[in-house]
Design a protein that fits this description.
Layout (H helix, E strand, L loop, with lengths): L9 H5 L6 H9 L5 H12 L1 H4 L4 H8 L3 H10 L5 H12 L16 H22 L2 H13 L2 E5 L5 H13 L4 E4 L2 H9 L5 E6 L6 H12 L3 E7 L11 E5 L12 H37 L4
Parallel strand pairs: 1-2, 1-3, 3-4, 4-5
Helix pairs in contact: 3-5, 5-6, 8-13, 9-13, 10-13, 11-12
Length: 298
């Protein structure tokens, strides 16, 4: 049987990752770097295990440099950006099987996979409950309810969560629009006003497209709410209210697993608060939409 070129062997899953070319280039370039870039290089080279867990903002602060300088250095050594560098670092520091899921071993049977994946999801929910600020949740619910229109932004792995938030907000009778395309997000944000509020969902808080949309919306006068993972990130600089999740996703991969579960729980809590604040109007809207949706079933 011919193995797919994309499918890793069990030996590859259990073995060490390939050499980290970007880090080797960084080490080679370090002597000739200007002061700010040299400080960033030192943080990355000497604190690799810590950098895997840090945001671009945190690395910039530790190095006494700007976020733009961190991203520029990443690109100079061949990475597409800081997130790409973190993924390469994680691959070098961990076993490849962890790119599938943090807790898996190559020999795990389906029943073990099931238990580990479910346990990770439950842990993400418990950790998120511990860090989610009830006062911030209340402020976010109030801010969104007061808006004449709500714009929901999410891209990539966050897009399905944004779609869920969009539908849930519609069901409680609010004027809400969804933008999961970067161009549409930019257009929507540029046309925002003080009567508009935005809800941005981004696990890393470092996605260029959603940062840009949130920044443009705020500059146009909109109030901004973001759902992002715990820790400092560029997105938070453009937020009026931050709702934190706590998931380990960033360390090993870009695909959403536990972070998605945590984000959905925060969305559920946020919209439940908004529905309670809406009182009879929200209940009436839910009843109307339930009656309409009932027509879709046999």
């Amino acid at each position: 049987m011919v193995r797919s070129a994309l499918a890793p062997t069990s030996q590859e899953l259990a073995g060490a990752a390939p050499p980290l070319a970007a880090i080797e280039r960084l080490r080679a370039l370090r002597p000739g770097l200007p002061p700010a870039a040299a400080r960033i290089a030192d943080v990355v080279l000497h604190q690799q295990a810590e950098v895997v867990h840090m945001s671009v903002t945190e690395v910039a602060e530790r190095a006494g440099a700007s976020e733009g300088s961190v991203v520029a250095l990443c690109r100079q050594i061949g990475a597409r950006g800081f997130q790409h560098l973190k993924i390469e670092l994680a691959r070098a520091l961990t076993r490849p099987v962890q790119a599938i899921h943090e807790d898996l071993e190559p020999e795990d049977a389906p029943v073990i996979v099931m238990r580990k994946v479910f346990a990770a999801g439950m842990q993400a929910l418990q950790d998120t409950l511990a860090v989610l600020d009830p006062e911030a949740l209340a402020r976010a619910a109030s801010l969104l309810r007061a808006a004449r229109r709500i714009e929901v932004y999410g891209i990539g792995s966050a897009a399905p969560v944004a779609e869920d938030a969009h539908m849930r907000l519609l069901r409680i009778g609010l004027d809400v629009r969804l933008a999961v395309d970067s161009h549409v997000q930019a257009i929507s944000a540029a046309q925002a006003s003080p009567e508009v509020a935005t809800l941005t969902i981004s696990h890393s808080g470092s996605t260029v497209e959603t940062i840009t949309a949130t920044r443009l919306a705020r500059e146009a006068g909109a109030r901004t709410v973001v759902i992002t993972n715990l820790g400092r990130s560029p997105l938070q600089a453009h937020a009026d209210v931050v709702l934190h999740t706590a998931a380990r996703e960033t360390r090993f991969r870009t695909e959403a697993m536990t972070s998605r579960i945590a984000q959905l729980a925060v969305v559920d809590a946020l919209i439940s608060c908004m529905a309670l604040a809406g009182g009879a109007d929200a209940v009436a809207a839910l009843r109307r939409t339930s009656e309409v949706l009932a027509l879709k079933r046999y």
